[in-house]
Amino acid sequence: MKRRPQARPSSRLAVFVAAALTLATSVLALQHPQTAQARAPRADLGWYVGSRITTSTNVNKAFSIDQNNGWVVGDGGGLYFTHDGGQTWATKTTSINDNLFDIVFSDAQNGYALGTNVILRTSDGGTNWQVLRPSLPNTISSISAPSASTIYVAAKPNNGPNGVYKSTDSGAS
């Protein structure tokens, strides 16, 4: 008669922990279906989803102004914000369809969102966004804003020399 190999205690513990997490997540889903997915742990990384941004396009970059206020940019002119630490996200409608891939604020009022050869600028905390189309010879790829009026953009070398370009008038020129 062949004996089945015994499971090692460590593998039994791993199975038990996985089953307990699955059970806890299932119970949470039954009690609070709207938040169950948002609070399910990522056991492999120790992360959990705080909330979801409802969009069918990619979101590309997040920037937090403080622990409650943050912005996310995405494809198709996607601009999303939170004022409650990421519990909920709202969409800010823009007049562009360009993919946005970088966002930065120099302070709570002054911020810039960057797309391929387009910069959006706000000076009122994101209530209104001005579209800037800088006349740079290259595709801009990232942005930094050490002050409300000074910005730096990095450029890829597709139509001219690569490098960092500086504006001291909030990107107007």
The residue ranges in which pLDDT falls below 50 over 5 or more consecutive positions are 15-40
**Which CATH architecture of the largest domain is right?**
6 Propeller
Largest sheet: 4 strands, antiparallel
Distance N terminus to C terminus?
Answer: 85 Å
Biggest sheet, spatial arrangement of strands: 3-4-5-6
**Count of beta strands:** 13
- The structural class is alpha+beta
Relative strand content: 25-35%
**Radius of gyration of CA atoms, rounded to a whole number:** 23 Å
Number of helices: 2
What coarse outline follows from CA principal-axis ratios?
Answer: globular
Please state the average pLDDT score: 78
CATH superfamily descriptor of the largest domain: TolB, C-terminal domain
SSE order: HHEEEEEEEEEEEEE
Q: What's the number of domains? A: 2
Q: Given this structure, which CATH class of the largest domain is correct?
A: Mainly Beta
- Helix percentage: 10-25%
CATH topology of the largest domain: Neuraminidase
Q: In a few lines, what is going on in this structure?
A:
With about 170 residues, the chain is α+β, with helices and mostly antiparallel strands. Helix content is about 15%, strand content about 35%. The chain has two domains: about 10-50, no CATH class; about 60-165, Neuraminidase, CATH 2.120.10.30.
